[in-house]
Please model this.
Amino acid sequence: MKHLFRNGHWVKVSDDVQPEVRNHDALLWNDRAYQDMNDPRFSSRSEHREYMKANGLTTVDDYKEQWAKQQKDREQFYHGIDPQRREDVMRAFQEKRRRG
Model:
């Protein structure tokens, strides 16, 4: 005998009963996650977006492209590919040669 939690109560069901699958509960496609958080500030994506905008806040996914670009820049810098670094090294050699 299985027990399933339905409508706030545990219900005994036979072994051949499968739990109800609700495809519309996918976290990315509806507001269920916001409703389940029990946060009094917002209960939907649109309310969350408005709250974030009103308070000058953002989420980490807003920086995805920026971090990828900065990672590429860091790799180039540490491998000596940064054009500014190359100019700095050449200037340092010229300054050293000029001073003797």
Observations:
- The CA atoms of residues 48 and 54 lie 10 Å apart.
- Strands lie at 2-6, 9-13.
